[in-house]
Amino acid sequence: MKNSKTILIFQSIAVGLLTGLVVLLFRLGLNRGEAFRSMVYASLGATAGAPQILLIIALAGILTLLGLALGLLSVRYPMIKGSGIPQIKGELLGKMNHSWIPELPLKMVSGIAAIGAGLSLGREGPSVQMGAYTGKAFSYIRTVFGKTGEPSAVERRYLFISGASAGLAAAFNAPLAGVLFVLEELHKHFSPLLLACVMGACLAGDLVSGTIFGLKPAFSFPAIAPLSFSLFPWLVALGMITAIGGDLFKRSLYAAQDLYKKMPIPDWTRPVIPMLASIPVGLFLFDASGGGHQLIEQLAHGQYTIGALALLFTVKLLFTALCYGAGTAGGIFLPLLACGALLGTFVGTLLCSAGLCTEIEIVNFLILGMAACFTAVVRAPVTGAVLILEMSGNLSHLGSLVLVCLSAQITAELLRSRPVYDALLRRQLDAQQDKKSSSPEFPDRQRI
């Protein structure tokens, strides 16, 4: 028995290594897409008159075709839609099933295409789901080629979860957050064996991803000094404000999904709408396009007016809802962190204008805003605090992180704001049931 547990831990490490490689390829593809998109919009900005109009028309045509292709994929393979984390929760509850062939490569390609084209979607959800696919693929390969017999249901489950955790660790260079995310959000049940498997997988995934991107924090922030205790009461207010903003973030996602359902257009045409909307966003407010990584770093190093921050938050929130509601591959981690960073910077800038803090301390509010927004939206305060600690690479604000996350969690409870992935899973299951009810002969595809 002890030997089988040890074997399972080493198999989880192998899953983490494979997941790290998959996420590494995904991140490299996203970086190439981001660089190409920046070059395209720089060229558009450098031209004027008729040449610019022709370039915009050509770009609109390309994005329309790309949107149609993504729409067809999401309709044919609904498990690759959106973040992928609700689907993982669905499988763990026994209500959904992943098929790693062909969904794993399709998730990667569609995610690179959607995010690279400028949609306001994140890389973390696809990375987590691709990790889960990798864990399932490993179980299948072990069954076919292994000599230890077919893995049990528990072993399959642990490999599936280990891959998911390694996906988050590799996406954000945050191995500890990957461990906590599984225990706090996905599995929600603790066992020493599961903890060992997940820890091994997260460490392995982070090491593989770090071979190219470096074992450094995900965000490049300036030097961060601890906040004085005199500002701690304002952190309670920041948590409350960010929780309200997080509730708006969730409501906008649900409203966009409902709006698309009411539109008299086929489901496979939906991604064309955010694709075309990305053109004016990219031309006039480029920082609001894409996942939000570049926006967060620019907020930390630049100075923005109150009006500019309010505009960026509004556009980012609405554009994210428009993109996610269309149903193509892409997560919400980075967009929600960007919205939290904008709210935190907004509050910090207000306090600085009132002489209550210095300009150097505004970056602290940016970081705390991200943690509070994650807590309010995902309802996983421990994961949120640790994730931001790992992504910022600084432990000086540990106490303030705990306070702001607690404030956001309590406020979200008072608002009766459901965890976003639970709500999105419920919506997917309802849509799946409606589709089966309307089509009595609707076949369940055989899954591997």
Concise overview:
By secondary structure, the protein is mainly alpha-helical. The protein has 17 helices and no strands. Helix 1 crosses helix 5.
Give the tags.
mainly alpha; 448 residues; disordered C terminus; 74% helix
Write the layout of secondary structure elements.
Blueprint: H1 2-46, H2 49-76, H3 85-92, H4 100-116, H5 124-145, H6 153-172, H7 175-186, H8 192-213, H9 232-262, H10 272-284, H11 293-301, H12 306-325, H13 333-353, H14 362-378, H15 381-392, H16 398-414, H17 420-438
Helix pairs in contact: 1-4, 1-5, 1-6, 1-8, 2-4, 2-10, 3-17, 4-5, 5-6, 6-7, 6-8, 7-8, 7-15, 9-12, 9-13, 9-14, 9-16, 10-12, 11-13, 12-13, 13-14, 14-15, 14-16, 15-16
Characterization of the model:
The protein is an all-alpha fold. The protein has helices spanning 2-46, 49-76, 85-92, 100-116, 124-145, 153-172, 175-186, 192-213, 232-262, 272-284, 293-301, 306-325, 333-353, 362-378, 381-392, 398-414, 420-438. The chain is 74% helix and 0% strand. Helix 6 packs parallel to helix 8 (192-213) and helix 14 (362-378) packs antiparallel against helix 15 (381-392).
Please report which band the strand proportion falls in: under 5%, 5-15%, 15-25%, 25-35%, 35-45% or over 45%. under 5%
For the biggest sheet, the summary is: none
Question: What does the radius of gyration come to?
Answer: 22 Å
Mean pLDDT: 90
Shape: globular
Unreliable spans: 441-448
Helix and strand succession?
HHHHHHHHHHHHHHHHH
How many strand elements?
0
Helix content: over 70%
Q: How far apart, in Å, are the first and last alpha carbons?
A: 28 Å
- Helix and strand content put the structural class at mainly alpha
| SS summary, helix count | 17
